Amino acid sequence: xxxxxxSFQSIWDRDEKEExxxxxxxxxxxxxxxxxxxxxxxxKFCYFKKVDRxxxxxxxxxxxxxxxxxxxxxxxxxxxxxxxxxxxLAVQQVQSALFFQRYRKVNITGGGDISFYPDLIPxxxxxxxxxxxxxxxxxxxKGFKDLDTGKALVDAGVEEVTFSVFSTDPRMRGEWLNDxxxxxxxxxxxxxxEHCEVHCAIxxxxxxxxxxxxxxxLSDLVDWGAKGAILMRFANTTxxxxxxxxxxxxxxxxxxxxxxxxxxxREAHENFGxxxxxxxxxxxxxxxxxxxxxxxxxxxxxxxxxxxxxxATVITGRIxxxxxxxxxxxxxxxxxxxxxxxxxLITAEDLKTVDLRELKDTVFIPPLALVHDxxxxxxxxxxxxxxxxxxxxxxxxxDGEISGTLTEEEVLEFERRAFNExxxxxxxxxxx
Length: 432
Known about the structure:
- With 432 residues, this protein is an alpha/beta fold.
- Helices cover 36% and strands 14% of the residues.
- α5 packs parallel to α6.
């Protein structure tokens, strides 16, 4: 069923939604800043809380050239960005980007919590005066001093806000978000909901803010007028995504399984979906069926399979594995999984666990896998094989953060294009 954007009161028109699919809809202004330093202190569940920044070993990635290690896989994945940028440098980002391309929206984000950025209001005023829409990306509101701050930001042109909520219970926010003024944060959130398009993020921790607490939180967000809420599964182990030697984040917490979490998202949608768009990450979106919505449509899969002319192996993570197995069923392409939920967080250590006997002459690894190309080739040919190692397509599907603003047909079209691109690569590099 397609989602009705008229009832969503979206500020995006058709052309802008198409730009989203091409990742060109907005200008990203990165204010830098670091977790724990530029955010009022770590939240209890922050993934970066236990990261050791004194002994840094680069992972390697697709951005590396001849040498293992670049700014992304050495520093950016650890959110080692330095302090917030001064206002003149933030303005320069906007000016430089607009010189080369036309944008309609600016997404202000950073490694720290942007509610702590001291010049947030004047920055918004500058951007708004240029005729650009403003999206505050991922703030918890902990840095807002009073309700007047929220009002000033709306007056300065803020039209969209992504707000990390956790819970609408002030006591719980104070404890788990290290929020010194939780009632003020929530008042600002409520004001944003009344005057902006607000999408909320809720990291769901078993026995803490799930169950009845989550129902109360979603009920409050509906009453306040939030447009969307993405539920985010809490990760606490290396195989769930804590690859920075920082597991566990919280001792004694066993996160929901993937199926348990999917059930939580489904129940939230059934209870509140008529009033607020509910999605989940790493899965799923009850409206569009993402991720991998095409796996629900056999006629689409048949057309894709018919185009495959060569054999290859695709390495992926545990969540994508069953979807990809279905896509490539009865084709010359086999799918191999490693013990990591998210394929983009696969590292060299994961590749070392692959049974080389399962690999064909051409092997596709996730494009964003954190491993240098040369290292991947050495690991996957350690049996003295001569396999060709190729990176696949950056995005085969869409995460709930993106799919939650789209219709099912738009998600299906994105996935069709992505899989057609992957199949073209398979036909070029695979063995016939």
